[in-house]
Amino acid sequence: MAYLSSIPINPLRRGGQRLLSNRQRMHAALLGGMAVQPVKEKILWRLEAAEHSSRVLVLTASRPNWDHIVEQAGWPGADGSDPKMADYSPLLAMVVRGRRFTFRTTLNTVSSSHNPESATATQKKHLTAPSRRAVHLGERSAPNQLLWFLKRAADEHDQWGFTVGRSESPTVRIIERSHERFTRRRGEPPVSLNLATFEGELQVTDPELMTRSLLEGIGKAKAYGCGLITLAATGGSDVVVG
Fold first, then answer.
1. CB-CB contact of 229 with 198 (8 Å)
2. Which of 116, 118, 114, 177 is nearest to 145 (CA)?
């Protein structure tokens, strides 16, 4: 069983600001909501920040408890402060071939390559190392980020179990973009995220693959709030959790 939660975050409280400003701290706080520690399951989440009221959407395989986040970063005891949580099964049952949904997802628009056109000195070092590891190339402009998405989900490119129309007339747009760079631990290389939030209409082409995309997320940097897909009935509000 899986659960989709919506947790209100108060951006005016210090605890809320600490979570909203640090993706690694947010991830750690969400792991703290799981009773079985250390946490073995992978969780998916997405931050939806606003000036006066923000929320984090979280998908977990087991039933969580978010009381600690409400106490530290929410509105304890206030109307509308309680997290919403629902069984994800009704949504998964709706995933059938040809079904259309409106969707939203935030992704780290990065690709892996063994042969980049203009490699940096650091990338050349990785490419010439004995391991021959691929380097990550991030797309930072809006046109390139949209093209990155369409290469995976337009025309016949249903890499995630769904399509978003034809490349020349896609049913998706970018509604928010940002670039974030931070250090996880002292002495480690910084994490660089090229974030784009995509919204539009999708059509299910492969129900099994689409279900896996919903439960496991898509793309990279899932620990940092990327990869969760939320769906709504076309023309309606979020399925399961609004």
1. no
2. 177
β-pair partners for 9 = 54
CA distance 227 to 222: 6
Q: What domains can you pick out in the chain, each with its CATH number? A: 3-87 (3.30.70.1200), 100-233 (3.30.70.1210)
Higher-confidence position of 240 and 1 = 1
pTM for the complete prediction? 0.86
Name every residue whose Cβ is closer than 8 Å to that of residue 84 and which is 6 or more positions away in sequence: 5, 6, 241, 242
